[in-house]
Write a structure and sequence with these properties.
The protein is an alpha+beta fold. It is built from one helix and four strands; from the N terminus they run αββββ. It has a four-stranded antiparallel sheet with strand order 1-2-3-4, covered by helices on one side. The longest helix has 50 residues. 10% of the residues are buried.
Length: 124
């Protein structure tokens, strides 16, 4: 009677397969972690841009003489943003105000800020 050869996997084949799986799984985890980090950073930057634009629109709604430098703090989706509006009178010319709005925050990505600038003029 002839004996059949065993058709299972050898320990070397199993170890090679497990090693390949471990390498692929760690690469996928690294990519996923980086993706989450960039998504969070982009979300914070987008919210900062929206807050800066909202601040400019709030200033635009004030009487020209009432537009002055100010600072506020706002929390959106659990992230705290500091909004600083720096108003320079008669810049770049008489009857104009240069407004620089800087939104700053510190998140998992570190300290960041977003800045926008515009010029308002007096209609009178």
């Amino acid at each position: 009677m002839k004996r059949r050869r065993s058709r299972g996997f050898s320990i070397i084949e199993v170890l090679a397969a497990m090693s390949l799986f471990a390498v692929l799984a760690s690469a996928i985890c690294a990519v996923a972690t980086t993706s989450v980090r960039f998504t969070t950073s982009n979300r914070h930057a987008t919210l900062a841009a929206m807050l800066a634009q909202r601040e400019l629109e709030d200033l635009r709604g004030l009487a020209y003489a009432a537009i002055v430098s100010r600072s506020t703090v706002d929390t959106v989706e659990g992230q705290t943003y500091t909004i600083n509006s720096n108003v320079t009178n008669n810049s770049p010319a008489a009857g104009m105000k240069r407004i620089v709005v800087t939104v700053s925050w510190t998140g998992p990505e570190g300290s960041r800020d977003h800045e926008i600038e515009t010029i308002f003029t007096s209609l009178i």
